[in-house]
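Hi there,

I know you've been waiting on this one. I reran it after we fixed the sequence typo, so this is the corrected version. Both the input and the resulting structure follow.
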Amino acid sequence: LLLLHMDEASGLTLMDSSGRGQDFTLDSGGSLGQAGAFGTGMVGSADGTIGGLVGTRVFTYQAWVKAPVGSPYYSYLLHMAGSGLWFYLGSGSFNVGIPFTSGTRSLVAAIPPGDGSYHHVAIVMDADRPYRNILLLWDGQVVAGSQWQIPPDGVRLTTAGANFQAYSGTSMDEVHLEARARYDFPIGPARQKALGRKTRFNLWEGARR
């Protein structure tokens, strides 16, 4: 549904590589990072639209995030304005809210402060999974999970407008949203070195960085 490599070093556009043409435009205060990450070193905000999520009962969201040593992460990993959907890191917690016709359900997990390195974050919803069908993962490890009654009409969104924000020194990179569930995808030492990440996990195939 969406793949933002965030490799742009200049300009005002985060290019979507999913083939759906859902580019994001940086607004006032937005910035592209020195190493191809979004929001590095200053308040950053980017706006766009995401199609294909309405009514889905299964999805995986993934991104890489970094915060200064000892500082909490502050970032809207994804925010769909007006719909009640949010994926947010802030004040030492990982927060997710997903809207259904019966109302918005939320899940929260504690996360460690920043250490100056990138870490992998993922959200997996799978309506057909018999146990804990919503999972929050940090560096490939489940940090929170719950069993929700996901209605037949799936995710309810009232608008396609979407927003990313990264501030207080937090950076984002390699955002991926897809309409299928992924869980455990280990990568070998060579891939770890190429990615430059301190984690064994890369929850998508074909990422360039």
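Quick highlight: The two ends are 19 Å apart (CA to CA).

Best,
R. S.
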